[in-house]
Amino acid sequence: MQRYSVIDNNRKREIVLLRGSGCVYKKCKFCDYYLDSCKDEALNFALNKEVLDKVSGIYGDLEVINSGSVFELDKATLGYIKKICNERGIKTLHFEAHWLYRNRINELREQFKEFDVKMKLGLETFDYRLREDILCKGIAESNPQVISRGFDEVNLLLGLSGQSEESMEKDIRLALENFERVCVNIMCDNSTDVKPNKKVIGEFMQFIYPKYIDNDRVDILINNTDFGVGD
Length: 231
What we know:
20% strand; 231 residues; 7 helices
């Protein structure tokens, strides 16, 4: 498992994939990332410390992800993130959280108040029926302005059955209107029953990809390891 990488294109930053206690939601039908977890906080911290020690501060920008939400990282790891960022001159710090943690975001911002904290939401799509009836994302809200409240960045999941060129374009447009940055993830085959749709992915690559590949507010991951972390 690769857990540290440097992203040299678009928004330049370092990225670390840490390990937490596991996603507390675990109902997303498309996701098996929660398998990268451990209930032993001491073991998690030992692993996370080794990963965080690789951070150089080269761009002053660090993205922290784990298979769940930042709130599922142990206290020692959170403290070490702050220590490393202070030592290495990190100014901007990115975390991810599920929408169910939205009322704790201000608490996290206060904890890391010396940094410019950017919170990322795994929304996947603004299409309520697809998101909740099929993907079971657990975001019981349809208003984009309400969904984005407290979050700065968003993950989208494209390349699914039920999506089209028009719906994918709409998702990215709404994301750019309501968030500072967008990360477009193309669905990759995994152990779940939700599978990528090759026709939809083909439409994305032909019609959508060329429009946004050079947009500095948009990251596009064709493979889920394109940031250099994961396996």
